[in-house]
Amino acid sequence: MEGDCLSCMKYLMFLFNFFIFLGGACLLGVGIWVIVDPTGFREIVAANPLLFTGAYIMLAMGAMLFLLGFLGCCGAIRENKCLLLFFFMFILLIFLAELSAAILAFIFRENLTREFFTKELKKHYLRNNDTDVFSSTWNSVMITFACCGVNGPEDFEAVPHLPHSSSEKATPEACCQRELQSREGTFVNKEACLTGVERFQNRQGCYTVILNSFETYVYLAGALAIGVLAIELFAMIFAMCLFRGIQ
């Protein structure tokens, strides 16, 4: 009976580590996609130090989970106590790091409010100055998502105007409609847009557009994170049980 229980534990341990292996592979794939994606998202990530760091953290975490899942599978199948102990210690560190990151994200979630982004935009945005990281990032976001400002074009009323514009409410070029939503896309009517003709402007705010675009993926990412934490917890339990059962 004890041998059957140990054998069952071994294969369950292998199964859980296989899921960790797959989870690491997925994170690794997403991290690589974010860094090399040619559709404009890479430019946004590269221009924002926080997102740039986050992409590499995701890449590193994926690689680590990929490796640990592989080691856990080998340790379970070969019943190697050294590999099992090594796996347990590192998966524990990853588990605690992920849990800490989730708690910090919950605590600082107020920094992702509409008011916060509006305040930062009005304070730091320099319109078409692409040498400025903040402005270049915002221009890329507005072009990619066909949106304007956080709430709409009215966010730019307090922003310094373009040198060539005589309008009191000049709209940034990034808010003008294009045939194709990319920096190389042709403007529908650039002059009319810059002088305030609304039908040639993207009127919807980026906050709403991006929230709607990523709402499904946020819930999916949250569910995936909970699933990964649960799998890691069970994998640690089975690793210790198997470790103690091996003679």
TrEMBL record:
It is a multi-pass membrane protein. Coiled coil: none annotated. This is Tetraspanin. PROSITE patterns: TM4_1. One of its GO terms (cellular component) is plasma membrane. Keywords: Disulfide bond, Glycoprotein, Membrane, Transmembrane, Transmembrane helix. The chain crosses the membrane at residues 12-36, 56-77, 84-108, 217-243. It is found in: Membrane. The gene is Tspan18. It comes from the Eukaryota. Pfam families: Tetraspanin (PF00335). Disulfide bonds join C147-C176. It comes from Hemiprocne comata. Its main location: membrane. The keyword Disulfide bond applies. Belongs to the tetraspanin (TM4SF) family.
